[in-house]
Every structure is written in structure tokens, then in C-alpha cells.
Design goal:
Largest sheet: none
InterPro entries: DUF6596, RNA_pol_sigma-70_dom, RNA_pol_sigma70_r2, RNA_pol_sigma70_r4_t2, RNA_pol_sigma_r2, RNA_pol_sigma_r3/r4-like, TPR-like_helical_dom_sf, WH-like_DNA-bd_sf
Pfam family, one: DUF6596
Number of strands: 0
Order of helices and strands: HHHHHHHHHHHHHHHHHHHH
Structural class: mainly alpha
Keywords: Sigma factor, Transcription, Transcription regulation
CATH topology of one domain: Rna Polymerase Sigma Factor, Chain: A
Protein name: RNA polymerase, sigma subunit, ECF family
Shape: globular
Family: Belongs to the sigma-70 factor family. ECF subfamily.
């Protein structure tokens, strides 16, 4: 096996096994710090040894065994090690059993721990991206638009709070589960989005490992709560979005927007499953929540055989419904993109400009303005907006797309919306 093959095997192992290793160590030692550091050390040993020894037949088992040894070594080295060993044994042996019918999955336990309501919402997302998604602190800091040191402190404090508050490492009981699940869904949605459009420079523009893990965990939660409309809605939203993944990045590494995508490359099985979930929720006759409406919007997009067949009136109507539930500036921004297809770019631009104070640091705001200004023939203003969007964007494929559109401003052809890319 060549050096490049070994490096790829290590990369794939990190993507596929990081959460499993961290979850297994958290289960055994009851300490996120120990679990994270031992997992990182195990991967460091793999980088050192696999090129010489070869990739083991079962990389996950090898990494878990190595990480366990590293964790034990750390506990033995530290002061007050007897107390730490006693605490670790207590957590490992005295952890309450799962309630009847609960799904046995270490990563599901881990995400409920990271998303405990005792933690601040932004901390839950950061901790989940680190412990479950395996993102580096610097990648998470870029996603949150904060300094790396600030994010590192935030994650450290969260792990300490979990330990001192003795937050349990388990799936909540049946009576507590409905109240806990909304926070978990919010985190899973953000994890999926990081995979769908990765923000870290030097990383793949699409991180399928993250989006696939978010989908897998959402499926598990749906099995726990099959009648929950928002769980079904989030799963449908993820499936309909992920179905477009094969067509979203060109061979040259540039983002391909919805208008230009080869719809024949979309995953028809995922689309069919997503549409079925949307229809089931409509048939339930219950007022939809945020994820169900977003899934319905994506169902409209994926129902059109050509972008010209898109029912934009229905999209706007769904956004009107969503605004009543979630009057956030990002929802208003996406609604304006759909409005442009019905009422024209001038009306949409006026709506977008009203969001300036709230979205000045958001790259998609400037990208949307650039597209609308371009359609209005205001090339100079469009170029300035593209420049700002490129400056703020973190995804390499998106930057390539925005750069090309800026550099082609002489082309007066109609620009496509960013919504639904």
C-alpha cells in the first residue's frame, strides 16, 4: 500500500471512527476530556505506525484499543490517580441501564450528553461538532465567526460542566425524551449543514461524513419518536438536500447552483423517501413546524424536472408560513430570493437591503445582493458585493463559484438564486 493510500485510510478512519472511539471511551471512563485526548493520541499513533506496519484489518477496533490504553496511561500518570480510577470504575459499572426499547448506540448517547439543556445552545453545537463530528477547534471557531482561543475555552468549559454537574451519559427516559429532542435536532441540523457546505479552508467543500452521520443519528431519533413531526421533517429535509450532493460540485471544484445542476445525477431513492415523509406529515393534518416547512420547500424544488418548472408561488407561500414560526433574518433572506422569481429583482433587493444591519457579516447576504444587483445591470455595485461575499465565505467551492460570477460581470445573462443550492 502506497503512502498516499495509507494517508487516505487514516483520513477515512478519522471520518468514520472518531465519534465511535470518543463515545466508547466516554462510556468507559465518564470523562469527555480523557476520551477526546486519548482518541486524538490514538490517531497520532496511527499516523506514525500505519505507514510502516500497514493499515490494520479493523481500523476502528485498533483505534479504540489504542485509545483505551492511552486513557489508562493518562489516568495513571496524573496526580490523585486512585480517585480518578475509582471515579472511572464507578461511572463504567454504575451507569443506569437504558429504558426498555431504547436504541443501543454509543454515538446517540454522546450527542444527548453534548446537547444537554444545562449547556448553552451555542455550546451544545460546538461540543457536538468537536466530540461527534471530529472537527478541529479552529474549524468550529470559523463556523461560529469567533477566535480559536474563545472557542477552545467554550468547549473546555462545557466538558467541565458535564463532569462537575454529573450530566449522565445516556439516552433520556421516555418521559423526558420529547422535551430533550428539539435541542438535539437543532444541533443535528447544524452538523448536517457543516457537512453540506463545509466552512473550513483546506477541507473538502462537502464533508459527506458529517452529513451522513447527522442523517444516521436523525434516523435513530425517528425510531425513538416515530410520531414526532419535526423529527420526520428534519429527516426529510436532510434526505432531499443530500440527494442533490452528487451534482453540487463540478469536476473543477466549483459550487454548482440549483439552476445549473444535472438533475439526472440527483439520488432518486433519497428524493422518493424524502417526498414520502413530507406527504405523511401533510396527511397527518397537524400544523407543521420549522423543519417540516423547510422539507416541503425542498420537496417543491426536487419535484421540478427543470428549474423553469419550479412552483415559486408555492415556495413563497411556504416561506410566508415559515416566517411566522421563525422570523429570523436568514429566513427573510431566502424568502427574498424566491420573491425575485415572482416579483423581480428590484422588489427582492429592497427586502434584502432591509436586512443589512442583521446580516452584514454573513457571506450569503452579500452573495444574494450581488446576484440581484447583477440582474438589475448594476455591475459596479454587484462586483463590490461579490468581493465582500468572497471575503467572508469559507467554503472553497462557493468561493470559486462567486469568483467566476464576479469575473464574468460583463455577461448580462440572468443570474441564478443561491437558495436551494
Amino acid at each position: 500500500m502506497s503512502g498516499a493510500d495509507v494517508r487516505e485510510a487514516i483520513t477515512q478512519a478519522h471520518r468514520g471512527e472518531w465519534a465511535r472511539v470518543v463515545a466508547a471511551l466516554t462510556r468507559r471512563f465518564g470523562d469527555l476530556d480523557i476520551a477526546e485526548e486519548a482518541a486524538a493520541e490514538a490517531f497520532a499513533v496511527a499516523v506514525e505506525r500505519w505507514p510502516a506496519d500497514g493499515v490494520p484489518p479493523n481500523p476502528g477496533a485498533w483505534l479504540t484499543t489504542t485509545a483505551n490504553r492511552k486513557a489508562i496511561d493518562r489516568i495513571r500518570r496524573e496526580s490523585k490517580r486512585d480517585d480518578k480510577q475509582r471515579e472511572a470504575r464507578t461511572v463504567y459499572h454504575d451507569d443506569p441501564p437504558e429504558p426498555p426499547g431504547a436504541i443501543e448506540d454509543e454515538r446517540l448517547r454522546l450527542i444527548f450528553t453534548c446537547c444537554h439543556p444545562a449547556l448553552a445552545p451555542e455550546t451544545r453545537v460546538a461540543l457536538t461538532l468537536r466530540m461527534v463530528g471530529g472537527l478541529t477547534v479552529s474549524e468550529i471557531a470559523r463556523a461560529f465567526l469567533v477566535q480559536e482561543t474563545t472557542m477552545g475555552q467554550r468547549i473546555t468549559r462545557a466538558k467541565a460542566k458535564i463532569k462537575t454537574a454529573r450530566i449522565p451519559y445516556r439516552v433520556p427516559s421516555a418521559e423526558d425524551l420529547p422535551d430533550r429532542v428539539s435541542g438535539v435536532l437543532a444541533v443535528l441540523f447544524l452538523v448536517f449543514n457543516e457537512g453540506y457546505l463545509a466552512t473550513g479552508p483546506g477541507t473538502d467543500p462537502i464533508r459527506h461524513d458529517l452529513s451522513a452521520e447527522a442523517i444516521r443519528l436523525t434516523r435513530l431519533i425517528r425510531a425513538l419518536l416515530p410520531a414526532d413531526g419535526e423529527v420526520a421533517g428534519l429527516l426529510a429535509l436532510m434526505l432531499l438536500t443530500d440527494a442533490r450532493r452528487p451534482a453540487r460540485v463540478s469536476a473543477t471544484g466549483e459550487l454548482v447552483t440549483l439552476e445549473e445542476q444535472d438533475r439526472g445525477a440527483w439520488d432518486t431513492a433519497l428524493i422518493a423517501e424524502g417526498h414520502r415523509l413530507v406527504r405523511e406529515r401533510l396527511a397527518a393534518g397537524v400544523a407543521p413546524g420549522r423543519y417540516q416547512i423547510l422539507a416541503a420547500i425542498n420537496a417543491v424544488h426536487t419535484s421540478a424536472r427543470d428549474v423553469r418548472d419550479t412552483d415559486w408561488s408555492q415556495v413563497v407561500a411556504l416561506y410566508d408560513q415559515l416566517v411566522r414560526l421563525d422570523p429570523s433574518p436568514i429566513v427573510a433572506l431566502n424568502r427574498a430570493v424566491a420573491v425575485a422569481e415572482i416579483d423581480g429583482p428590484e422588489v427582492a433587493l429592497a427586502a434584502v437591503d432591509r436586512l443589512a444591519d442583521q446580516l452584514v457579516g454573513y457571506h450569503a447576504y452579500h452573495a444574494t445582493r450581488a446576484h440581484l444587483l447583477r440582474r438589475l445591470g448594476l455591475g459596479g455595485q454587484a462586483r463590490a458585493a461579490y468581493d465582500k461575499a468572497i471575503e467572508l465565505a469559507g467554503n472553497t467551492a462557493e468561493i470559486a463559484y462567486l469568483t467566476r460570477r464576479r469575473d464574468q460581470l460583463g455577461d448580462r445573462s440572468r443570474s441564478m438564486p443561491i437558495e436551494g443550492s
